[in-house]
Write a structure and sequence with these properties.
heterodimer, A: mainly alpha, B: 2 domains, 6-stranded mixed β-sheet, 4-stranded antiparallel β-sheet
Chain lengths: ~260, ~325
């Protein structure tokens, strides 16, 4: 990473921290504590299942909300407040600015997820008193959640580079919802005929495949995640995010900052 | 050598989603700024000053034409490392302190990390913000933000400094300090290109000025050259309160105070007025040419409508005084 991208990423991370984005961890900690205590009292044998399901789903939702709402402001807020003027009048290329913003927010989400992951393990330790080797599948689930955040951050940046702060989060949120049904969309496309099949196939491959990145239920039941899936998902997210970021850069390179 | 060359720069904005409307912000603009000079870019609000600066900074793309700074293209990072820019009404990352902000900008400008702290301290000292260096910018007043803006523009020792309305938001003392700072930059061999609608600042500072209105260049040159092209006025003072009828018919206004009368009239009417005084045997005290100001030139070029959008130093001072009283 070149130095300018690193400096922009560091500033983005610092801005998120000082704007109290990580305060969501307090809400998450309260949620996990309450869940651990309640689950310990009302369920028998399924405490682990409930805590893992609830914990990982909360990690995912908290992070998605942060990725969308901070992500869409990454560029548009800088244009509205004109903070961008004094950055781009320096030897900073527009693609470096986009890349710096992306890594800054992705870094924030990784740190956030690490703290939340510790919270999930703490709640798990409270209800089951010991860890089993299958519990470490939670780490894979957390890694996949981070991969989801990477895609959502790239998409939020893309929408932020041309849309308004009102429409951009709506677009990003709907893509997240549709992306969770990407596998169903592919199944539907395979069954359809004619133009519908072409359109459904195009849509199925265009939307991010979040369903492949969701192994929460699998991990909660103690089922192992194949290594091949980890490799394929990593490659998929790298290619998909790079393509989305390239789109964001292409739009931003041509944009007049009025 | 030209520090800045602008060749036929033109900008048309397209607005509207369904029904496209175009607005011409800049007609083909051509001008050059010499190395080491202070160049004033004047015009009323909406004249095209900020659009020109945004094009030069690579924030907006021109519809036609080109420009070069220090002989390099506008998207050349080597050129951008050698320029400083203060935007109009600057707003900065308010989660940072002034010191952190300058450090960040220094890093982006490629300042040697070993010299960064020293340069940050020097810039803060130069704009008199050393005491507020560790205060977050969200707690800064408008004037302090303007100073921080100037500090970030000069921090990396640029060869050319672009300032968009640098006196905006400053009190009279602050304005004087910025004027001194601009003069210091020139003394250190820097080129300063600044836009303003405060004519007295431009008159006091600039080696040359350009006047722009509705995106069109209306005049360019040294202030004395420009003002010399405006027909001058003379002040005639004589003893007594009597005003000859020949003078009254010229439409000139006379002011009598005590035992003298003072008259200001266009230079071309001077001989007729003196002849009238001689005929009436009035005792002449003085005939003095009245200095033509940049404001007179501005009005002659753009008319009184544009004048209402520019201000002289008296009005600025008066405005600040009124604000401070409130």
């Amino acid at each position: 990473m070149n130095n300018r991208i690193l400096h922009i990423a560091t500033n983005t991370f610092r801005e998120a921290v000082r704007d109290r984005v990580l305060y969501n961890l307090i809400a998450f900690a309260l949620l996990m504590s309450a869940a651990a205590v309640l689950v310990g009292q009302i369920s028998i044998q399924i405490e682990k299942l409930v805590v893992i399901n609830l914990g990982l789903t909360a990690v995912s939702l908290f992070g998605i909300v942060i990725a969308i709402f901070i992500g869409i402001g990454l560029v548009s807020k800088e244009i509205d407040k004109r903070t961008l003027y004094t950055v781009l009048s320096r030897p900073v290329r527009r693609w470096e600015f986009i890349a710096g913003k992306f890594f800054g927010l992705a870094g924030t989400l990784v740190v956030n997820t690490i703290f939340m992951g510790i919270g999930v393990f703490a709640a798990l330790a409270y209800v089951s008193h010991h860890f089993e080797s299958s519990d470490f599948g939670i780490l894979v689930a957390l890694y996949f959640i981070i991969l989801q955040f990477v895609v959502i951050t790239a998409l939020a940046l893309l929408f932020s580079s041309f849309s308004t702060p009102i429409f951009a989060p709506i677009f990003a949120f709907w893509l997240f919802v549709i992306g969770n049904f990407a596998q169903d969309l592919r199944t539907f496309a395979a069954m359809a005929h004619g133009t519908t099949r072409v359109l459904a196939t195009a849509a199925a491959y265009l939307v991010p495949n979040f369903s492949a990145l969701n192994v929460i239920s699998q991990v909660a039941h103690g089922e192992p995640v194949p290594h091949r899936l980890i490799l394929l998902n990593t490659a998929y997210v790298l290619v998909y995010s790079a393509a989305v970021l390239s789109g964001a850069v292409m739009i931003f390179e041509r944009r007049n900052l009025k | 050598m030209n520090a800045i060359e602008i060749l036929g720069l033109e900008k048309i904005y397209n607005a509207g989603f369904w029904r496209k409307r175009s607005k011409r912000a800049l007609r083909p603009l051509t001008l050059a700024v010499d190395d080491g000079e202070i160049f004033g870019f004047l015009g009323p609000n909406g004249a095209g000053k900020t659009t020109t600066l945004k094009i030069l900074m690579g924030l907006v793309f021109p519809t036609a034409g080109t420009a070069r700074i220090l002989g390099m293209e506008l998207d050349d990072p080597r050129m951008k490392a050698q320029i400083g820019f203060l935007p109009e009404q600057p707003y900065f990352y308010d989660h940072l302190t002034a010191r952190e902000l300058l450090k960040y900008y220094g890093q982006l400008s490629g300042v040697d990390p070993k010299q960064l702290s020293r340069k940050v301290d020097a810039a803060l000292e130069q704009v008199k913000l050393s005491n507020s260096a560790n205060l977050q910018l969200r707690k800064f007043s408008k004037g302090m933000l303007q100073r921080a803006g100037i500090a970030q523009a000069i921090l990396h020792d640029p060869k050319v400094v672009f300032l968009d309305e640098p006196m905006s938001g400053l009190d009279p003392m602050g304005r004087r300090e910025v004027r001194n700072l601009i003069e210091d930059l020139k003394a250190n061999g820097k080129t300063v290109f600044f836009s303003t609608h405060i004519l007295s600042d431009a008159e006091a500072l600039c080696d040359r000025v350009a006047i722009i209105n509705q995106g069109e260049l209306r005049g360019i040159g040294a202030v004395p050259e420009l003002t010399a092209s405006v027909h001058g006025k003379v002040e005639i003072v004589w003893q007594g309160a009597a005003v000859p009828t020949g003078i009254r018919s010229m439409g000139a206004q006379c002011h009598s105070a005590g035992d003298t009368t003072r008259l200001i009239l266009p230079e071309e009417n001077q001989d007729t007025a003196l002849e009238a005084l001689r005929r009436e045997r009035l005792r002449l005290i003085s005939v003095v040419p009245v200095r033509t100001s940049l404001e007179d030139y501005f009005v002659a070029q753009l008319g009184t409508a544009a004048k209402s959008e520019v201000v002289s130093s008296e009005l600025v001072t008066d405005g600040h005084n009124r604000l401070s009283k409130q």
